[in-house]
Design a protein that fits this description.
The chain is mostly helical. It is built from 10 helices and no strands. Helix 1 (2-20) runs parallel beside helix 3 and helix 5 runs antiparallel to helix 10. The longest helix is centred in the last third of the chain and has 30 residues, at 155-184.
């Protein structure tokens, strides 16, 4: 039953991400975190989301903003080095609250409303904070999207660029938590992390990404931006609620 629920959630969230370029990963992380231990949830989520985002990028690869990548990668490298030096399995509750608050702060504080990932400094900070959020809390959708608030390009370029950087981040996350598990948690939920569950999730992620990118063609840029704003805020609130719930349950 749990495996079926996970696979169904993978498909639905992959479609959502294919249309909006975000949101699905956060929803999936909330579900996984409620049924799996932290390390297991991170590994399953990373494998599925890397596949989903990777497929979405392949479908939209001609719209990738490659100029963002070097600066994003520099920021991401800083976070990876920091986490490897510390080597711990976090409690994601507090981080979910911080990540979920960011989209709201971006709309309330004037200094954050001008974020444009095409700027070198913004891309570097984006790479560092988003990668850090992925390693800490698994999902970083609301945080990532805040860096695209003033990126005046078409929706396909936004979705393609976010998909590529998220793919890299999720691969890093899988590697990090597999390393952590091999060192400190050798018996982490081996049954729930069966290759059949992960393989099935990856296949459904590709199918969902394809469906989602097809549906993306039905939106124009104005509709895309009008829909994503409220969704980002709603997901931010969901992340905060999940974080508070985790703190209260601790």
């Amino acid at each position: 039953m749990i495996a079926t629920a996970i696979l169904l959630t993978v498909l639905v969230t992959a479609v959502i991400s294919g249309v909006l370029g975000m949101a699905g990963g956060l929803i999936l992380m909330v579900v996984l975190a409620s049924v799996l231990p932290v390390s297991a949830a991170m590994i399953v989520h990373g494998a599925v989301q890397a596949t989903s985002n990777g497929a979405r990028f392949v479908f939209l690869r001609n719209r990738m903003m490659w100029s963002v990548l070097p600066w994003y990668a520099a920021g991401a490298a800083v976070s990876v080095l920091l986490f490897v030096s510390v080597a711990f399995v976090p409690d994601p509750a507090v981080v979910l609250i911080v990540v979920g608050s960011f989209p709201w702060l971006a709309r309330l504080l004037p200094m954050l409303r001008g974020l444009d990932v095409r700027h070198r400094g913004t891309a570097t900070v984006c790479g560092a904070t988003v990668t850090g959020a992925q390693l800490l809390a698994g999902a970083s959708g609301p945080l990532l999207d805040a860096f695209y608030l003033e990126t005046d390009v078409d929706r396909r370029s936004i979705v393609a660029t976010k998909a590529f950087t998220q793919t890299v981040g999720h691969i890093i996350k899988v590697g990090y938590y597999a390393w952590i598990s091999s060192r400190a948690l050798p018996d982490v939920e081996s049954i729930r992390l069966s290759p059949f569950l992960i393989a099935g999730g990856m296949l459904l992620a590709v199918a969902g990404a394809r469906i989602g990118t097809r549906l993306l063609d039905r939106f124009d840029d104005r509709q895309f931006r009008r829909v994503t704003g409220p969704v980002i805020l709603a997901l931010g609130a969901l992340a905060v609620a999940q974080g508070v719930r985790g703190l209260l349950a601790a």
